[in-house]
Amino acid sequence: MAIASTLSRQGRPELVSSTPQLSLSGVSKYFGTSGFVALDGITMDIPQGQFFVIVGPSGCGKTTLLRILAGLDTQSSGTVAVNRTDEKRPVNSMIFQGDSLFPWMTVFDNAAYGLRMRRVPEAQVSDTVHTWLERIGLWRFRDRYPNQLSGGMRQRVSIVRAFANDPEILFMDEPFSALDEQNKLLLHEELLRIWEATKKTVVFITHSVDEAVTLGDRIMIMTANPGRAKAVLEVPFPRPRNVLELRQKPSYGDLVFHIWEQLREEVQRARQNAEGEKV
Amino acid sequence: MSAEVKGRDRVVGVVTPIVLLGLWELAAQFGLLDARFFPPPSAIVHQFATLVASGELGANVIASLKRLALGMLLGGVPALFLGLAMGISRPLRAAIDPLISATYPIPKSAILPLVLLIFGLGEMSKVVMVALGAFYPIIINTVVGVANIDKIYLDVGHNYRASRWQVFRTIALPGALPSIMAGVKLAVGMGLILIAISEMVAANDGIGYMIWNAWQVLTVDTMYVGLLVIAVLGFLFSIVLDEIEHRLIPWKRRA
Questions:
Q1: Cα separation of A172 and A169, whole Å?
Q2: Beta bridge partners of A55
Q3: Of A35, A245, B142, B224, which one has the fewest beta carbons inside 10 Å?
Q4: Region of poorest pLDDT, from A25-39, A189-203, B54-68
């Protein structure tokens, strides 16, 4: 792992605080009696304020892992420790894959959902949602319903819904996978812009290597069947990042290529396993 | 579709019944139709005016509407709450679903004698009949509406730490609303049928009574007026319900 170690030396050590925000130890998940191992002993510390990306082929259990971290699912064994810095703020908010905005609520009400569920005074809800919708350029669409918005706008609203709730940790489950390339690029830029202003701990799941390298501080590559952590890489690029400039750099291409090589082995192995099972 | 074509469709839709009514009128006047069974529309309109002027029609319509409204409330409100609770709670659904499936296919009109036996000939028996008719479509559609809510919305509710009541208020109810409205429309249609039937058998006023009484004394014109009034009521209800749906479910409107 020569490249990984050089990269970590170039990384940003100041981000690695003493107590990690999230601490996973031997997290495993088995399904039913078939003995299918979705996750096999994932051990990982995620420091506070880090943009942590998990990249892996489909079926590697990365969504299951995220759901376990968010408390929407339970692990079969292992522990997840969350170190909170502020008891008053919510622990986590999730940005889901695909359409998760409530169709029966306006943009404003969707964005205000988390705050209202924890009974924040309405004046404060109004202020916060206003600020966030302004920041992402959707304030004038506040009275629209989701079916009156484009896919990119809808996903921006779900980003606002999560950020406005002001959680300690943001979980993102392939939030941009349904968008076209142009929209994806714009949303990467916007996400980086607002994340860099708040510096929340992020766990971001994707199958796109470009997305992982563009956004992340650290990348975990996962294997499929069983889902294991194959490698962890530091991303050396400084912030604030400009998405287009970043993608022109040779070092960007090198890192993407390096991750791809590791993933390709995984995808091929998973395919061979699947074919072997069929025979 | 162009505005021109739409306009033409509308004109055709209005012209067809007018032409048919004209033909009916002529056929009855010239003896091609037996006016004892098919009195000319002019005679029906005349009878309509007479019944309105005497206050008889108004009193009958109000009697029927009152029973219909009370019955809808008596059957619809419990159906709504029980349906929402069943949609959320799996054990409750398992307990009550078989009862509903077993009793739903019984024709409501067949229960009328039993209802008369239990509730007597007073107002309550008619109200209960409407309630029975309203209960089933509303509870069935409500359960289906809640059960079909996309699981991702419940995940969102869970992730944002919504309480049970908050999930109910912000997700289950609005998510099931389109299906509930469909149930209410069916319920109103069923209520109209049942109010007419039960008033024919056991009432001294109401539209159903008016039609049945007209048959007994052979005032065929009045019978037609009764049919016309029921048809118009059904039509008005569907307009009102569409408007309510439009306001209650604004997110179903297109951009």
A1: 10
A2: A206, A221
A3: A35
A4: A25-39
A147/B254 touch (CB, cutoff 8 Å), yes or no: yes
Report CB contact under 8 Å: A104, B175.
Answer: yes
Rounded distance between C-alpha atoms, residue B210 and residue B57, angstroms: 8
Instruction: Kindly state whether residues A85 and A19 are assigned to the same domain.
Output: yes
Domain containing residue B167: CATH number = 1.10.3720.10
CB within 8 Å: B156 and A72: no
Contacts of A103 in chain B (CB under 8 A): 251
How far apart CA B185 and CA B76 sit, in angstroms, is 11
> Total domain count for chain A?
2
Q: What sign results for the dihedral spanned by CA atoms A261, A263, A266, A271?
A: negative
- Do B175 and A98 count as a contact with CB atoms less than 8 A apart? no
Chains A & B: contacts with CB separation below 8 Å: 60
Of the three residues A166, A182, A202, the one that is the final residue of a domain is A166
CA B221 to chain centroid: 25
Cβ proximity of A230 and A222 under 8 Å: yes
Domain carrying residue A150: 99-166
Q: Which residues of A touch B254 (CB under 8 A)?
A: 147
Q: Which residues pair with A221 in a beta bridge?
A: A55, A231
Q: How far is B214 from chain A (nearest CA, A)?
A: 49
pLDDT tens per residue across span B126-179? 999 999 999 999 999 999 999 999 999 999 999 999 998 999 899 999 999 999
